[in-house]
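Anyone up for a design puzzle?
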């Protein structure tokens, strides 16, 4: 049984993770951490990791980048693995996450969806074939309450594509700030915020007289919660290191 601490338990994603964990017989949530404190869940909730004085197996984090230091301090002291699903981290914070992976098991992904990770792999394959001759643009769409832009998933896609290109590309987020022709080494990344869109990502390869578009649409938050809970079960008892969705899928498929 995997004992989970859920960071951000009172948020929208936190509530979905609670329900997903109840449906998984291999885990249970033993603590919640949320700045807003108490709730009606059947597990104790505290406002800070510093209030937890016992060890669990894995942290699932759907909270806020500002809470990273508190989370990592607890995880490193008690040697608790962490599934970090929060997005919008600064480069300095990402460096801290990578550093923590030297001491504990860290599953770090900007998106916990199986379909999204397949989209990334397909985009990488397309880049191998089309990248030198096609312009690449990424459009991501999310609900009007999402504060970070571009999405962590859009950056994951861009990074995956970049790994397959012969020349390191420039990420361009805002074209109105300058007037010039599009450079061949650009990847345009565009954010849309509106309504209750759960999450949509389009990867466009635009060539001469033809366009190839890869698309993923999330219909509910449930798929992200299920992915996070599965990642927590996967991470239990893993040695220190950085883990991701591709590694978990490879283990499930028996290819590692």
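Challenge accepted. My sequence:
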């Amino acid at each position: 049984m995997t004992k989970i601490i859920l960071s951000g338990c009172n948020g929208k994603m936190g509530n979905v993770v609670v329900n997903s964990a109840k449906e998984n017989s291999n885990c249970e949530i033993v603590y919640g951490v949320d700045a807003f404190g108490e709730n009606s869940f059947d597990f104790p909730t505290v406002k800070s990791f510093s209030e937890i004085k016992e060890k669990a197996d894995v942290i699932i984090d759907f909270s806020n980048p500002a809470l990273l230091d508190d989370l990592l301090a607890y995880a490193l002291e008690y040697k608790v693995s962490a599934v970090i699903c929060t997005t919008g981290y600064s480069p300095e914070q990402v460096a801290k996450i990578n550093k923590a992976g030297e001491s504990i098991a860290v599953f770090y992904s900007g998106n916990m969806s199986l379909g999204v990770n397949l989209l990334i792999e397909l985009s990488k394959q397309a880049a191998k074939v089309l990248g030198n001759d096609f312009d690449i643009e990424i459009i991501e769409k999310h609900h009007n309450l999402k504060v970070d832009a571009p999405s962590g998933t859009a950056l994951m896609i861009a990074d995956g594509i970049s790994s397959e290109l012969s020349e390191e590309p420039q990420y361009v987020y805002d074209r109105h700030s300058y007037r010039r022709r599009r450079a061949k080494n650009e990847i345009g990344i565009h954010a849309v915020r509106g309504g209750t869109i759960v999450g949509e990502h389009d990867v466009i390869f635009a060539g001469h007289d033809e366009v190839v578009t890869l698309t993923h649409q999330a219909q509910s938050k449930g798929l992200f919660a299920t992915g996070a809970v599965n990642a927590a079960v996967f991470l239990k008892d893993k040695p220190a290191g950085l883990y991701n969705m591709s590694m978990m899928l490879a283990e499930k498929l028996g290819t590692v």
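A detail worth pointing out: The helical segments are 12-22, 68-78, 91-100, 114-130, 152-162, 222-235, 245-253.
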